[in-house]
Amino acid sequence: MATEPARDQSAEHATREPPSRAPQSRAPQSREPLSRERILREALRIADESGVEALTMRRLGDELGFEAMSLYRHVANKDDVLDGILDLVLEETEEPVEDGPWDAAVRRSAISVRDALQRHPWAPGLLLSPPRARPARLRYQDSLLGRLRKAGFSADTTYVAYHVLDAHIVGFSIWQTMHSMTAANSPELVEKLMREIPFDEYPYLMEHRDQHLTEGPHHDVKAFEFGLDMILDGLRRIHDAGDGG
After folding, report:
1. How many domains would you assign to the chain?
2. For residue range 72-81, what is the model confidence (pLDDT) as tens digits?
């Protein structure tokens, strides 16, 4: 009887596949959960770094590590986000305090608003947008009007004084933002203007240009505070003259 040839054990072991193992699931990486506060803080960072035009729900979701649709559980839409980040900026401002001299209170408040708008250059334009009458903005307006009235100014003088102060604060912030952006982002435009403007025909403008380009005590003067103090000096004279309504 023929015997079966012996199997080559080594060959069998060489071709045999190792036993398969069940795939081990990788533990999911923990993510900080979404919240309205976290979404708005990230939106504020994007707006500060890239401008409010760069703020989209898709980019906001990407930066946070979530699909854009996930954001809508916490914010209604982009307009809601814009309102929210504007509120964060307004939280950095101070209303005029009731105690102490009225002019010192108004001055400190005005500087706090200008400083906040300077930290967030996109905010002044959004602040003036008619649909965005934010509660913090309304409280500031009412407190400034009230501080002037309680200081003894008539309603008519308060009406004018409020508009002059608000125009200086917000208007200066917009001017400063545009001026800084042009100098920083468009040096070619600045050089072009320097070449094309016939400064010889405008001697005082040439003098002003040279002051921009040279060091001197004029750079130590803070233009916003300079203008604000001029406004307050005028209001003091009106106040001392007996404007009581």
Report:
1. 2
2. 999 999 999 9
